[in-house]
Specification:
The protein is an alpha/beta fold. 32% of the residues lie in helices and 30% in strands.
């Protein structure tokens, strides 16, 4: 890495909203454009520090940090489970972004597709690695069809009887005639660090981790 100030990658959307008060407790105050939902800018300076925030999709945050484009980042446990990058260190659960990674199926599922008797299942998901591993642990071979969105439509359109996706309230599943049947993992957002950066800038990054830890415990 050649950047002088720390670069922190953060996810767009709901997690950014939950993260903002935590950033302020840590002493990170992004420029005003960061709070403008219509702003197309993706890189933001922070007042009084040399830090830069980079806004990206949650899945891409882990990749930015793992490959050294950012020193640190915030992303969900679901993303870490899916990619399992060796170059990432996840020292802290930030206690935000709570949801669960679940298996769901149609409320009116054909009996022959019941997971209790299945040896093979077709699954629509954006988490193929997690899904294969989970079903393999149950002795079920999972054929995973990777989608980036609208996953709840897959059973209705005949693409797959089952899906694996993040669930918060369950209302989206219900609206699409689906029900949760199994929970794979409880999910929250984690602070992640590039291992190489942590070795070369341990005092700076370690101090910031401590500030995040204090802020989380004080919440």
């Amino acid at each position: 890495m050649t950047m002088k100030g720390l670069v922190i990658a953060i996810p767009k959307g709901r997690i950014q909203d939950e993260l903002t008060p935590l950033l302020q407790k840590v002493g990170i105050y992004p420029e005003q454009a960061f709070f403008d939902d219509s702003e197309r800018q993706l890189q933001f300076a922070c007042k009084g520090t040399g830090m830069t925030l980079v806004r990206a999709r949650a899945f891409d945050v882990a990749t930015f940090v793992a490959f050294g484009a950012a020193h640190m980042g915030i992303t969900g446990l679901d993303v870490l489970m899916e990619f399992n990058y060796d170059d990432l260190y996840a020292p802290l659960d930030l206690n935000i972004g709570h949801c669960r990674l679940c298996v769901a199926e149609p409320e009116q599922l054909p009996p022959q597709e019941n997971l209790a008797r299945a040896s093979h299942v077709r699954v629509a998901t954006k988490y193929p690695n997690v899904s294969r591993s989970y079903f393999a642990g149950r002795g079920i071979q999972a054929e995973c069809i990777k989608l980036s969105g609208a996953i709840e439509l897959a059973p209705r359109l005949g693409l797959a009887h089952h899906i694996v996706d993040l669930v918060s309230t369950g209302q989206t599943l219900k609206a699409n005639g689906l029900r949760e049947v199994e929970t794979i993992a409880k999910i929250a957002s984690r602070l992640i660090v590039n291992r190489a950066a942590f070795k070369t800038r341990s005092a700076e990054i370690g101090g910031l981790i401590d500030r995040f830890r204090e802020a989380v415990h004080a919440a």
